[in-house]
Protein 1
Amino acid sequence: MNSVGEIGGASFASVPFPTPGSRSGAKRIASRLPVFSYAGGRHADPVPDAAALAVRSLRASHPGMEHPALDGVSLRIPSGTRVALVGPNGSGKSTLLKAVVGLLRPESGSILVHGNPVGACHHRVAYLPQRGEIDWRFPINVRKLVMTGRYVHLGWLKRPGREDHELVHDILARLGIEDLSSRQIGQLSGGQQQRALLARSLAQGSDLLLLDEPLAAVDAETREKISAVIRELWESGKTIVTATHDLESLSSDFDAAFYLREGREAAPEAEAFTGIPLR
């Protein structure tokens, strides 16, 4: 586990957690943030009729790696669809999500979100990382974690208002963790932690959700709850891109599947689910 967990443009390190409205606290946490465009604070309107996500000839590498984690990847995801990213560990699924959300700067190629470059409409993209990327020792309770999903709208110096608190309460109830709101996040079970991360993504109110294995290693109750919420989001018109290893649910839970292997698009096996074209 990294000492710092990055969640949708915010970093959670083992330092006191400042609240919005505190200028000194804003400076402290801002000094711990990595530099990427997703945290830029801009709000551009979507381009009419543009795809929710358009990636072209994307090449990206992780620091210290000899070979690129993504090489020449292209896809186009229409708004309101559910797309599965499929491939073995190390195939580039998580890397693609991080590049789209702005946590990894591409070496070449382009990424457009609703027709705008990464960072131009960062409030329209929510990212749910894998649990192992989060420092669960961070001194923050569940309610405050979920409230950080509102920071993209509030900024660092504005305190959450009544509507923000009501929204967070409703989301906690929706995911069945409202009774855990005052619990430190490291005291949660794995399934509860995953619900809390999803709650944070929902609090952002984004049109495009990037979910990195949201059902991995969770209990049956959590799987059912998260699956139901994801379906509700899709039915409400959200676009959902999910990295997954669950091949059995592809045809029932997704509109399309995009296959990756060793950082490149891979041809699906015979009779594998593909769904709508992603070009």
Protein 2
Amino acid sequence: MDDSPYSGDPADTDTALLAAIQEARQLRREDELERSQAQLLALMEEYPDHPLVLFEVGGAYDVMGEVEMAIPYYRRAIDAGLEGADRQECLICLGSSLRLAGEHDEAVETLEQAADEFPANNSGRVFLALAHYSNGDADLAVSTLLSVLLETTRDEGILAYADALDYYKDNLDETLDG
């Protein structure tokens, strides 16, 4: 039996907590970053192991440009059982933060996890491409971006070249010289 106070079921989560988190998110959208962070840090005192609180505290540090402070909160949120769309977003935020912190191998691993767990979410694959590039694998980065582009575009000009782009995404170095 799970003894954690968070079951992953929103019905089991304190309504006041969710309201406080929504308020902190709204403050963030209104560029009231310090107030949002202060509210979330206060929630940490009451809910120190709640995955959504941990994720939001990480996000508060992240948007304030303190990505190295955000990383441990993102990790703890995932370890505490963050689920669904919040988990997907947290994995992407963690991977992006790791990339910015110069932890390129771990960024790739984390973003691959996000892409594997949430294959329908293309933003994770785009951030994975950035991590591949930062990790010195420009070919894989471009190939990944071309794949996402070909799967998602409605641009007729790009679609006119879909067959060629699909071929080149796997043959980036091909030239007439072979």
